[in-house]
């Protein structure tokens, strides 16, 4: 990880750079998407922000500042809910109640405390967005996941850290995210790590709490025993998410029918000549924003005395 005049950056392969964008303005194509898909206009944005702030202030047991410092964060909730303040507020409450109920997965969520999962090279954020402007996260939950070295809890906490950085990117708020899960090398020992309680918690986070537009989930290189993992998650999965989940097996052409080759590594049939082995570089990038995580870690429902 380097820091140039534009901020921290991870160099990935020849000519590829990963950086989290923090500029509030975005190109005309994103402005059109925000208006057409989310109903966003300057007037509606201002009105919805004020209504959401009022609702948060009225929730006395919830600590979440409503000044300008959290505007981009609150916009993430509004954009995922297409600027309906009541729906956004419901999502805010769901998120912080989930965090309160699941401290093992959600408390003290700081990059410096989660180095191990990134050392395993299980998580990769691709440097290029897809053809729809969406941010792509890869999780490799097979060969690279050594259960004795890294827990499922650590993997989920790592995903949370990445998503928390991505949701503060205006382009990601508007266009959404894509999750690519590589199950090559999945074994029965991996399968045993997935419990119904974990599956329900994860899907409650994705479907009702996470302030991000998860547009597609691509499952690739999955062996037959993946069906056992899917069976654990299926009872808690809403139809909307099921319809966005695509299983490709070992068929790269099937994956490329949905994601442009220009934004995918060569090992998935793409044209991007990069390796997915720069987990520590990604960790260093997240650590650059440690102070931001410390601030957001304080948000939530007040502990009962």
UniProtKB/TrEMBL annotation:
GO terms for cellular component: membrane. GO terms for molecular function: phosphatidylinositol bisphosphate binding. InterPro entries: CRAL-TRIO_dom, CRAL-TRIO_dom_sf, CRAL/TRIO_N_dom_sf. Residues 114-273 form the CRAL-TRIO domain. This is CRAL-TRIO domain-containing protein.
